[in-house]
Write a structure and sequence with these properties.
This protein is of the alpha+beta class. The protein has one domain: Penicillin V Acylase, Chain A. The chain is 21% helix and 36% strand. The strands form two sheets. Strands 3-4-5-6-7-8-9 form a seven-stranded antiparallel sheet, with helices on one face. A six-stranded antiparallel sheet has the order 10-1-2-11-12-13, with helices on one face. The longest helix has 15 residues.
Length: 276
Amino acid sequence: MCIIFFKFDPRPASKNAYRLILAANRDEFYHRPSKLADFWGNDNEILSGLDMEEGREGGTWLGISTRGKLGALTNYLQPQLDRDTRGRGELVTNFLTTDMDSLSYLKKVSQEGHLYNGFNLIAADLSTAKGDVICYYGNRGEPEPIVLTPGTYGLSNALLETPWKKLCFGKQLFLKAVKQSEALPKDALVAQLLDVLNNEEAQLPDPAIEDQGQEYIQSILSKYAAVCVRGLDYGTRTNTIILVDANGQVTFTERSMLDKDPSRWETNTHEFMLQS
């Protein structure tokens, strides 16, 4: 389970406005090995965390490159997982390392969607010169990817903008922070967005989650009903904030759980200019 909120405006009217504001949670088993976000790739041009689970090494859930490619993934809540499918994390890694544009890449992925368990994939090309393009494809939805119009979006473990209560609740909190973004210092905006991602208020009952997850018992679904998921051995392990300003300055902040302990966290920030 994961959740992503993002707002984008390729050509903001104000020089103090952000072209992209993204806030995301990665929910995973606490014991699943992974690396904290850092630069990698041929010229250290890609910034992401990396999955280190045996057989899934090198996949990622969220990443951005200095060339302006951004990829983000959520799993689709489904009753039965096929253990013989390909690792979904490679979908983001492959995009970050390819020369294909976002729409062409998602069209290719749409032809191979049956090889994976359910997923949602955001792919973006961020270009100061050409303007930003953000696309979406989910292999449990329409057969073709779509190019998103500028605006604010929410994505959890159903298709884009599916109105799960926690998604609607979190999106309102996200919008409240975004409305203050031009007036706030960057550090204060990041702090507010982290507060959004760490909200543990369960949004119950939620017929939409219950309908999609009807094969699960109620107590399990109830754990997933907050923006921040907190269980004994599974829950929100990583908060990520990505800000891209009008000039192409990227601020990537990651807050990560340490040593499988929900009481211990480490926050790191990386900044760079988009090469495009």
